[in-house]
Amino acid sequence: MLPRPLMLAFELRFLPLTLSLIGVVALISAFGASLNGASLLATLLLGAMSAVGLYDLVQTRHAVLRNYPISAHLRFLLEGFRPEIRQYFLEDETHGYPFSRETRTVIYQRAKNSVDNLPFGTQLNVYGEGFEWLAHSMTPRKAKGANFRVRVGGPDCLQPYDMSIFNISAMSFGSLSANAILALNAGARMGGFAHDTGEGGFSPYHSRHGGDLIWEIGSGYFGCRTLDGAFDPEAFAEVARNDQIKMIEIKLSQGAKPGHGGILPAAKVTPEIARIRGVRAGADCVSPATHSAFHTPLELMQFIGRLRALSLGKPVGFKLCIGQPEDFLSLCKAMLETNVYPDFIVIDGKEGGTGAAPLEFMDHLGMPMREGLTLAHHALIGIGARHRIRLGVSGKVATAFEIARALALGADWCNSARGFMFALGCIQSLKCHTDRCPTGVATQDPLRARALVAANKAERVYNYHRSTMVALAELAASAGIDHPSGFRPTHFYRRVSGVSVASFAELWPPPMPGSFVSGDADARYAAAWSQARAGGSGQGEALRSAERFVST
């Protein structure tokens, strides 16, 4: 029987190291000092592999390398390419995440203005639970154009804005490259739709091409803050009165990471970004989890009125991912109590995208878009204010069907971030948080960003929007309506089991107008409405804690 060391040497897991050592010894013995170029190269290569393998045996950080010297490095190499291998070679057309290959392909085709039709029939399981469809009319109409718009601005707004029903969602300069921002805004100008700045401030790249802008104000107040992070009304007024800025959006939370602040590390806070955001260069740029300019729903409404006055009457609203229902209903009670109403509300679903977020926040925190939208839509009906407040939505909206579905559930318009990123050339490499985006979209690396030619990609942004609106017009015509605003819950159905289906009207029936105020809120909302407090959600939490204490 062979000695233990020899047995180990010839185990499969040690074979690469054993062969490397044997190869080095054989080459040196055979050629001695007269090694030619090829044998010298082979000796150096095998010698390097031997050194790596011997080091693997003695290192203590990686158990798999101690048991599989040299060969375990192949595992680490392939693991690094795992997302790409799965996305390009293994996944099917309809089940890729976050966006399926089928969806990405349609966006690429529309952006390139090429044929976006598919052959041979659907690949979806139409009898599977959760399948949804739009019910068409026996008397379809002829599509009459695709420039669909909605007016945003309530009775207190002096400068209402007629915006497209499909727009670019919030993405900041700093998160996206300068070339990406230039291309998005140029495409928005060409197509006459709006471009949300994100909370990173109003940059020169947003303004160069003159596309309509929604200025997002986050908890860091970038572009309208003092150096210590407080809201600066004078700085806000100076920027907000720019003609290119059409609406002001207060960001309360983001779908992919609600309740979580953000930080741009000091190394990434370049002098340019520091100047745009109004922060110190070379220091961490912090976005707190909560606002300092207001702390309660009542104060938020007062802040909205203040921004409306400072902007000379432009539409002002807020964006949030809904969490506890009573918190949103507290906002509704504050509207009633102050008689100050936002011009619009954007509901961001938890399925929304982000450059980086903790796994627990991204996967399990916050309300999905459709549930959040129906709650907000029903609440505004319940307080009798739906007619004066517009509702936008964002969260994995990229195709005409998804827009139509959101409109049927109560939205007035939709925003898309990742859809327009695909139009820019994003390949869903999932490298956004590494600053190594392979297409120059989500990076601040100038060498990577130069790959994105803004003039070329602006045309694709415009094409994607235009083609999607044409598809939406055709969907509306097939349903027998002239405008997508005519979509209703009765147009859409979902398979709730293998043998039964339900319309959206059955799944999400609306409340009676004004029923929350009159005390007739139905069972879905009665408890949350009773717990809602305009003075702050903390009072609602105290009530819930007391109820739990009593119940125990």
- Helix segment count? 23
Strand order of the largest sheet: 4-13-12-11-10-7-6-5
Give the amount of beta strand, in percent.
Answer: 5-15%
Output the CATH homologous superfamily of the largest domain. Aldolase class I
Q: Please tell me what the overall shape is.
A: globular
The major β-sheet equals: 8 strands, parallel
| Average pLDDT over all residues | 87
What is the quaternary state of this protein?
single chain
Number of strands: 15
The tally of domains stands at 2
What is the CATH C-level name of the largest domain?
Alpha Beta
Radius of gyration: 28 Å
Domain Glutamate synthase: 165-481
GO molecular function, one term: glutamate synthase activity
InterPro entries: Aldolase_TIM, GltB, Glu_synthdom, YerD
Keywords: Membrane, Transmembrane, Transmembrane helix
Structural account:
- The chain is an alpha/beta fold.
- The chain folds into two domains: about 5-80; about 150-500, Alpha-Beta Barrel (TIM Barrel), CATH 3.20.20.
- Helices cover about 40% and strands about 10% of the residues.
- The chain contains 23 helices and 15 strands.
- The chain has helices at about 5-10, 15-30, 35-60, 65, 70-80, 80-90, 100-110, 180-190, 205, 235-240, 270-275, 295-310, 325-340, 360-365, 370-380, 400-410, 420-425, 445-450, 455-480, 505, 515-520, 525-530, 535-550; strands spanning about 130-135, 150, 160-165, 165-170, 195, 215, 245-250, 260-265, 285, 315-320, 345-350, 390-395, 415, 490-495, 500-505.
- The strands form four sheets. An eight-stranded parallel β-sheet has the order 4-13-12-11-10-7-6-5.
- α7 (about 100-110) crosses α17 (about 420-425) and α12 (about 295-310) packs across α13.
- The longest helix is centred in the last third of the chain and has 25 residues, at about 455-480.
- The radius of gyration is 28 Å and the shape is globular.
